[in-house]
Amino acid sequence: SPPIDDHSDVLVIGGGQAGLSTAYFLQRFGLGDRYQLLDHAPDSGGAWQFRWPTLTLATANRVHDLPGLGLIEALGDDRPEVAARAAVPEYFRIYEERFGLRVRRPVHVRSVKRVGDGFVTHLGDGRQITSRTIINATGTWDRPFIPHIPGAEEFGGRQLHTHDYTGPADFAGQRVLVIGAGISAVQLLIEIAREAEGAQTFWCSRREPEFQRREFDPEQGRAAVARVEERVRAGLPPTSVVSVTGLASTPAIEAARADGILDWRPMFTRITRTGVCWDCGPGPPTGAERLDVDVLFWNTGFRSSLDHLSPLRLRGPGGGIVMTGRLTTTVASDPRIQLVGYGPSASTIGANRAGREAARMVAELLGND
Ligand code: FAD
């Protein structure tokens, strides 16, 4: 890892898809010597290095190529069956090398504060970096979200989130309730039902998932992104762009449906010591419908990982950050701060474009000083 300078005009925080795209374009726009890129993960790959081992390039949605060098070109071949946690980090490593992107890692950013007409960033080891601008690209992986349901602390079994899943073998012989309606929930429900020996699975979520009979419709995808964009322009917390496009029905999903694995139930209202129940109050459920399980497996998504920016007080009354600019990468209250991979750009393709736009905005802001 290159040494850390105590000042750079541009500080990029996070070296996943969004951070690498940003760095690529900062170089293209002549700011190659004026930025530092920090990441607290041990290796290249952004959040992909932490995905569960059974997620492959074929079962991921689609990992869009970074600008200037595609995955297949970098790796030399197409590897649909390879674990995404191996292939994508290797791709990013080659990418960083090819374009000379100097990522400082592992470097944890604890907080960013305003000072004078710029910022001071406090690192996990006590060091500080001053900068004139901040481009934040910290993704969502470090902020798994579990909704609050009464009784959660009473549950005597195991609770885990997508973030902590390591494979189906862990669930052998157990009664597992999968919670969530996104692609991770459905894929992992099927995986556990099929591969964890002797496991019994159950599934519920707040809204019933809709399975689309046809392939991903780009028009629908654009409309979903536009809705998230509208939210962040209004200062509302973003919803996920990768989850709102509906679930494409695949042969694996059809087969699971035929085998009774996708037997959906509405969300329970309370967690008990031994499981969950519907329409029940505190105390042992009596007449109410109940389900006893060993595991509550929350596939309930992620939130933006922005705790280190809290001293900047960016959140407004809507609960989110009011965003502006052509691709909503700019914090409306302070254009020296760009957020990439946030809101409508929280997809691999969105992160690419946002990186370019944020680099362009910062280049314009710094001008020819
Ligand atoms: P990340 O890849 O999360 O990178 C953020 C980086 O910031 C990390 O390297 C992290 O170490 C670093 N960081 C965070 N906080 C700090 C800090 N305080 N200090 C220093 N460094 C920090 N999108 C798609 O388009 N296609 C898919 O197939 C797809 N599959 C997905 C599957 C799952 C299970 C999930 C959860 C998401 C998926 N997504 C997918 C969405 C995906 O997360 C984004 O598309 C994209 O990978 C995010 O890139 P990013 O650079 O914004 O974030």
Secondary structure: elements and pairs:
Layout: E1 7-13, H1 17-28, E2 35-38, H2 71-75, H3 84-99, E3 103-104, E4 109-115, E5 118-123, E6 128-136, E7 158-161, E8 175-179, H4 183-195, E9 200-205, E10 211-212, H5 218-233, E11 247-248, H6 251-258, E12 264-266, E13 270-271, E14 275-278, E15 289-292, E16 295-298, E17 323-324, E18 330-331, E19 337-339, H7 348-366
Parallel strand pairs: 1-2, 1-6, 2-3, 6-19, 7-16, 8-9, 8-16, 9-12, 10-11
Antiparallel strand pairs: 4-5, 5-6, 13-14, 14-15, 17-18
Helix pairs in contact: 1-7
The structure holds flavin-adenine dinucleotide.
Residues 13-19, 38-41, 46-47, 51, 60-64, 108-109, 137-139, 141-142, 184, 242, 302, 305, 308, 341, 346-348, 351 line the site of flavin-adenine dinucleotide.
Structure characterization notes:
- By secondary structure, the chain is an alpha/beta fold.
- 24% of the residues lie in helices and 21% in strands.
- The chain has 7 helices and 19 strands.
- It has helices at residues 17-28, 71-75, 84-99, 183-195, 218-233, 251-258, 348-366, and strands at residues 7-13, 35-38, 103-104, 109-115, 118-123, 128-136, 158-161, 175-179, 200-205, 211-212, 247-248, 264-266, 270-271, 275-278, 289-292, 295-298, 323-324, 330-331, 337-339.
- Strands 1, 2, 3, 4, 5, 6 and 19 form a 7-stranded mixed beta sheet that branches. The chain has a 5-stranded parallel beta sheet with strand order 7-16-8-9-12, with helices on one face. The chain has a 3-stranded antiparallel beta sheet with strand order 13-14-15, with no helix packed on it.
- The longest helix is centred in the last third of the chain and has 19 residues, at 348-366.
- The radius of gyration is 22 Å and the shape is globular.
- The two termini are 28 Å apart.
- The mean pLDDT is 94.
